Each structure stands twice: as structure tokens, then as C-alpha cells.
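User: Assemble these into one structure.

Assistant: Restating your components, then the assembled model:
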Amino acid sequence: MRSEKDLLDSAKKYSFRGRVDKSVFSGPVFVRGEGSTVEDVNGKQYLDFNSGQMCSALGHNHPTVTDAIKKSCDELIHAHSSFFNDQEIILAERLGALLPPPLEKSLFLGSGADANEAAVTIARKYTDGFEVASPHISFHGLSDTARSLTFAGWHSGHGPLSPGSMAMVAPYCYRCPLAQKFPDCEIACLDTSFELIDAQTTSKPAAVITEPLFSAGGVVEPPPGWLKKLKQSCEERDMLLIVDDEQTGLGKLGTMFGFEKDEVVPDVVTLAKHFGGGVSISSVSTSAEVEEKIASTEFVVTHSHTNDPLACSAGVASLDVIEGEDVPAKARKIGAHLRERLTWLGEQYELVGDIRGRGLLQGIELVEDRRTKTPATRQGSEINRRCLENGLIFSQRRGGSVLRFVPPATTTEGQMDQAMDILTDAVDKASVRGAVSG
Ligand SMILES: Cc1ncc(COP(=O)(O)O)c(C=O)c1O
């Protein structure tokens, strides 16, 4: 096997950098993964609490998924995307049975950004409207339309947003932009947002697109009732509600879909990330009524690899795992243990200002001081570096002060404790004031 140095020297010469979090040519260089661990070229093992790029949340190289891929290799990898193939039909049928009514019609694409672009096109064509709004800490992907509706960042050097993109005030209660407190606020951020949307709309607004829990924006959980009130506000304006459940759906939060918490059924739902068990596939699902109207227009959203049997069979296999192994229940159990350990950490260290998230997607926000809430970005980076050295991978958000943990559903109690011990040691070493007194 080639050495790490040899591979990184080659990367320095031939690889084009464009990653979200890392722009230096340094290790680790990964070569294999199984369940909740990955291994680098030096044979060092890591607990992967980022689930790859959150796409291996069912566990790396799950055997149900790898078997399905191998079967596709014997049968059909790629197909003419204007004709149907069996795997694509089976996947649409399986997803239709899983989604709440009236959502039943699905189309499959490659990336999460593709699916959100398609969802926006569907909303525009269905409503005959144009403007689309999204909360100001959202992430929907880095293609042009998706990036323009991604307000958590990644705009530098991209010039003006696509026309019709509007930001709303996000329900970031720990740092409420309106200096309010829930529940006394009565979710004022939504009223303010819609006043602005109404004032800025030039003809008819088409949709709001939102995550049910803002992952890239800092693992921010909206307060109870927010999604329901959002849906009502959309309905009052004949706007569609698109829920981007790409990161949060399919069991990760402890429910099959992230939008279930407020008992809301969106008009359009997008899925991606661990849908495919590590293979790239995304979906857009809507009602038969919306699909009927859209399909009668010249709506065409397709790419060369759309509906490929290999990707669709990986999608079917991922649903087999999610339903067969009851991933929502696993997420609740693993998530409860993770929360217990993070809560204990918050009781010990002033540095931990807030603990948020659900199931297999949780995070802590680090602050210099709990009163001023100055983001502790330097400590976040120090903790991340030390954890990586000690074999724990996770990601940082909001400039580094939020540590985000996405352990795969395969994570055992022993692995969780090992990861939390590594984290506790790093938080202890980085703490400005040490243990909280009293
Ligand atoms: C909520 C959400 N939407 C969309 C995307 C974009 O997906 P992709 O990177 O597959 O385009 C992501 C990726 O992190 C995401 O978290």
C-alpha cells in the first residue's frame, strides 16, 4: 500500500481543493470503514462521529447495502433514464408506503442539492409564484439555486444570489436575533419573517424551504410549534412548504422523518445523505395532485445518472435497514446515551454553553462565558484537533464553536463511552475556567 506521505504529495500536485471544512493537504487519508469506525492508510482506527459526510449514518459498508450493490453489478448498473427500471419503481413504491399521505410520488436524483433545486422548480411551477424563502441559518446544498437558499454561509465570491431568494429570521433560541424568549415570544421570528416576505415579494411567493432541525447552521432545534406555524403561514399565502429532510430524515432523529415532531405534513420533502447507505442518491416526494399538475407542464429534471439501478437498489437496501433494524428506535437509544454524557459535560465545564439536537444528530455550543455567550471558536478547534489525534472524528460549525456529533446507528454503548471519554479529556484541557462551581 502507498504511504500517507506519498499519497499526500500526490494530492498536493493533482487534487483540486474545494472542501467545506479543510483546505490543507494533511492526513488522515482513509482507506476502509466498517460500522462506526474508519481506518486510515497507517492502520489507525477512528470512531467516526461524522458518519463520513453524514451519509454513512447506517454504519460504514453495511452488509445489506454492499450486497445490493454487488447484485446490481451482476444485473444492471446504469440504465436509460427516460425508460423505467425495476429498482427505481420498487424504490418509489417503498418510499410512498413510508411517507405520510398525501405524499406518495417520488423522483430520484444524485445529490441533496439536485433534489432541493428540483423541489424549488416544482413549487414555482405548481404555485405560479417565484420567490422562495429560507431561514438565515439554513443549508440546502452548493449548486446555484440551493446555495442561494443556503444562508448559513458559503456565499463568498459567488456574487448576487439567484433572483427570488429570501432569508427569514431563524428560530435560533439560544441567540434569538429578536432578543425574545420562548414561549413568551409566541414565535415572533415567524411573524417578522412573513412581514418581510410580504413586503419583498414582487408577484407571488412560491415556497419556504426549511430543515426541521438546522444541522450545518449549528445543530439548532426550532421550538415546539414552529414548523406548524410555518405551515399555516405558507397556506395563508398559497405557498408550498418544502421540508429539506436530507440530513434529518429516515430515522436519524429518532422518528422516521424529522418533520414529524410538530405533526406537520409538508407539501414537498427531499431526502439524501444516508438514503443509499453511502451511495449517492436523493429524492423529491410530493402528492399525486402536485405531481399531476407539474407533469403536465414541460417539467424535466434529470441527469445522466438519474434513476440508475445501482443507486436505487442501494436506496431500497437502506430502507430495508431503516425499517428492518428499526433505526429510529436505535437513534433514540444511542441519542439518549449521548445526551446523558453531553449533559454531564455541561454540568462540569462552563465552556459548554448549550446542548442541542435529537437522536443521532446532536451538538454542543462552546462559549467563553455563559453570560456574554462569546463563541469559543479557538477552544472548539483545539478540542477537535486533540480528539482527532486520539481517534475521534466530528465536525465544527458556526465558525468552530459548535461541535456536531453524528454517530452511526451501529454505535455501541462501549464506543459511545470511548468517544465521550476522548471528548471529555479534550474539553478539560481546553477549558478556560475548569469545572463549574456549585
Ligand atoms: C440539510 C441539507 N440539505 C442539503 C444538503 C446538500 O446535499 P449534497 O451535498 O448531497 O448536495 C446537505 C448537505 O450537507 C444538507 O445537510
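The radius of gyration is 22 Å.
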